[in-house]
Each structure stands twice: as C-alpha cells, then as structure tokens.
Amino acid sequence: xxxxxxxxxxxxxxxxxxxxxxxxxxxxxxxxxxxxxxxxxxxxxxxxxxxxxxxxxxxxxxxxxxxxxxxxxxxxxxxxxxxxxxxxxxxxxxxxxxxxxxxxxxxxxxxxxxxxxxxxxxxxxxxxxxxxxxxxxxxxxxxxxxxxxxxxxxxxxxxxxxxxxxxxxxxxxxxxxxxxxxxxxxxxxxxxxxxxxxxxxxxxxxxxxxxxxxxxxxxxxxxxxxxxxxxxxxxxxxxxxxxxxxxxxxxxxxxxxxxxxxxxxxxxxxxxxxxxxxxxxxxxxxxxxxxxxxxxxxxxxxxxxxxxxxxxxxxxxxxxxxxxxxxxxxxxxxxxxxxxxxxxxxxxxxxxxxxxxxxxxxxxx
Length: 365
Known about the structure:
The structure is a single chain. The protein is globular, with a radius of gyration of 21 Å. The chain is α/β, with parallel strands linked by helices. A hairpin with a 5-residue loop joins β4 (40-44) and β5 (50-52). The chain has an 8-stranded mixed sheet with strand order 5-4-3-2-1-6-8-7, with helices on both faces. Helices cover 41% and strands 21% of the residues.
C-alpha cells in the first residue's frame, strides 16, 4: 500500500478534501467537495453528486469510505485539517489529541462558523481511526510574525494579557501565495494580498512574511464579507446588545450583514451581479472602496506596495473587482496587479509531510 495524505479543509458550509502522495504532496490523486444544502450536504466526487445527511463528521466519514473504494492501492497515513484559530499557543502545525482539541475548542467563541466543524471532524476521525495521526494546521499561525505594533489592541493591560489581540486569518491561503511569489516572482518583496470570497481579508507581505492584516481577534473584523459585517463602530454593537442581546447580535453580524444586507441578496457576488437594482450596484461599489482603503493602509505598513495580488474564489476569478479596486488606487505609485489561485490543501499536505517526517527521524522513547 502506498502511503497518502488526506487533507480536509472545513468551513461552516463546505468541506474540501484531497488525497495526495505522502512522498509527493504536489500530486493530487483524488479530490472531493461538499457544500451545505437545506436538507443535508451535497457531495461531489468526480461523478454525479449525492446527498449526505447529518453533520460534517458524517460527510468526512463518507469521503474516507469513497476514497478507499476509488483508490484501493493507497493507505491514508495522516489526515491534515485546516483549523481557523490557533490562538497564541498554536503557532505551527501539530498532532492533535483530546487535550489539544479541548484547548482549541476554547477558541470557538472567536471563530464560531469554522472552529467547531473542523474540530468535530478531527475528533470523530481520531475515534474511528486511532492509529492515523490527525494534524492541525492553523490559519492564525502565518501571522505570528506580526509585530506588537500591528497586533496589540488599545485595551487595558489585563485584557491584553488574557489574549485579547489581533491574530489574523486566511493564513494557509497567504502562505500558499507567499510560496508562489517566492518561487515565481522573487523580486516582489512588498506585496499586499487580497483573499476575497465568502470570507475576505487582506494581508501585507514583506519578503513573504506577514506584517499586518485586516482581520483581528475574530474573523468578523476588516472588510465587509458575504454575510459578515467587517469592521464597524463598536458603539453600534454596544447599542444593539443593549436592545437585542448577545446571541441575536452575534447572528446579525455573522449571518445577516455584509454584502447580503447591502444588496438585499444572499451576498454571493454572482447573485449580486445578476441583480439589476441600485442596492446591488451600491453593494459592489461599497465593497470595492473598502478593499481599496484596506490595501492602501497595508501599503503604509510595508513602506510601499510593489504588487497587489488577488486570490480566493472571488479574487482570482472576478476580474472586474480587481480592476475596480486598482482604479481606486490610481493615485499611488505604480504597482503590479496580479491574480493567483491559492492552494490551501497543498499547504496542509506539505505541513503533514514535514511533521510526519520529523516524527520518523526522532528517536523512539
């Protein structure tokens, strides 16, 4: 049997999976994707899709079963999971166990849409296949290079000591882009990357390292997103909480704001583009302006911007958005506009290969 890596990239409404050779993680042997539907999950594995009932744990189990059927010559040697929030304690990939999963669950309040589903899958697979290592790779880890000037919050010291700070997200995506730029365009050393999709953020890269990013302690901060508000006056939140309570306001900010609220649609850019209303047009213009403002601000952190890179589902595919943002930045010194596809699953697989290889080289206790 040939050893392979299974990567699982879980979101609140999706799960992407790939099977790659342990010795050659760039080689994709098999892939699938599940998306949430009203009555379950739509699972696509190369042929006609199927519906899977239950949670993402059931979807992951179904993926493993189908992978074993489709490619019986490989054995899953390790499973690599994307986990959105690693907090201050998890700044590099790690092998997950019940203790670490428990500590990571404490961070669910800061990433409620993503943290729970990924940890549920890791825990269920750990029970079903206890001899297969489960590895966690953290979106926040890439931003560990950010200096206090860009991660501290202006709160009193006691809160900052408790971990109230900026962490940043989409780290696997930014790591993928940084690696590509290093290999293909090493002369570009001061770059702003915009990861635009259902969740959106921007990151300033200096020689491939994160120096500033738009998201903060949670994935609500920064530019508006599909249904998330992005940064707004905290006084608005205080006023809403007084009237409606925390749970209602949390649902409002995560699920009923952003492009959805501005456009009067579901917030998907394709839907907005197909909607011929003033509200839809306004939502696009508003989003473009906020992205441009964020890019300009990150350019300050870099001391200048050589390139603006767009990635993510919208960033790498919707040419009009990138062009509109660049037009808003016409007053800045000349910079290159680039579109690149990110490969978070490759980052997961390479991390798993490195960690498993390190384990194999360590003396047995």
